[in-house]
Amino acid sequence: MSRRLANLTLDVLDELPHPCRACVFWELDPVSKARAEASGDPAFDKEAWVSSTLLAWGSCGTVVYVDGMPAGYALYAPPSYIPRSMAFPTAPVSGDAALLATLRVDPAFREGGLARMLIQGVVRDLARRGVKAVEAFGDAKPPPGTMCVVPADFLLSVGFKTVRPHHRWPRLRLDVKGAQGWRAEAEAALERLLGGALPVGAPEPAYRGRT
Q1: DSSP class of residue 145?
Q2: Which of 8, 35, 114, 142 shows a CA-CA span of 20 to 30 A to 156?
Q3: Distance of alpha carbon 167 from alpha carbon 171, whole angstroms
Q4: What is the pLDDT along the chain (211 residues), one digit of tens a residue?
C-alpha cells in the first residue's frame, strides 16, 4: 500500500469524511455554530473558513491518503483563526504556538499508524514556517464514535506535554524544535512499519509494492 500526505486545499475539501466536511465545531464560535446548523449551510461556512485561512495564513490542514483514498486529516492554524479555542476552560493557547484543532482517521485505517503520520506532517509544516510549537486541547474522557477534540492520551503518546491540566480539557504542547529528534526517530520507525510514507507534496510512485 502507498501512503502520502497532502496539504488541505479547497480542491480536496470535499474529500473530508462525513460528518467532518460540514462540521464547524472549531471554525465558528458556539453561538454562530448553532445558528449555522439551524438555518444555514455549515458546509459553506466550512469552505469559507478554509478559504480565508488559506489566503491569510497558508496551509491549515493535512490529509493522508492510502492507495489514493483519503483516510484521515488534521486541521490546525493560529488560535486567532479558530473561534472555538476561546471556549475551552484551559484557554488561551500560547502566543508562539499553532493550535492543532482536530485529527481524525477513518476507522477502516486505524491500524496503520496514520494518526502519528499526520502529526509528523503537522510538525514538518510548522517547522518549515518557523512556528515554535503546536498546542492542542485534549479530551481526557473521549466519547465513542466521531470526536472533534483529539483524545489526550493520544497526544501524550506522541510527545505532547500538559501545560495546563483539567479534568476533561487539558491543554497540551509539543515544541516543534524539540520534536525534530522525535520526528526523525518516528519517521524511521514508520518507514520500516509502513514501507515508505511520502512527504507532503511528493508524487506517488508509479508502482505499488488509520489510529
Answers
A1: S
A2: 8
A3: 11
A4: 799 999 999 999 999 988 899 999 999 999 999 999 998 889 999 999 999 999 999 999 999 999 999 999 999 999 999 999 999 999 999 999 999 999 999 988 887 899 999 999 999 999 999 999 999 999 999 988 778 999 999 999 999 999 999 999 999 999 997 665 545 554 554 454 444 444 333 333 322 223 3
Q: How far apart are CA 177 and CA 199, in angstroms?
A: 19
DSSP 151: B
Q: d(Cα 134, Cα 60) in Å, to the nearest integer?
A: 13
Domains and CATH numbers, the chain: 3-198 (3.40.630.30)
The beta-strand segments (E) located in 19-96 are 61-66, 69-77
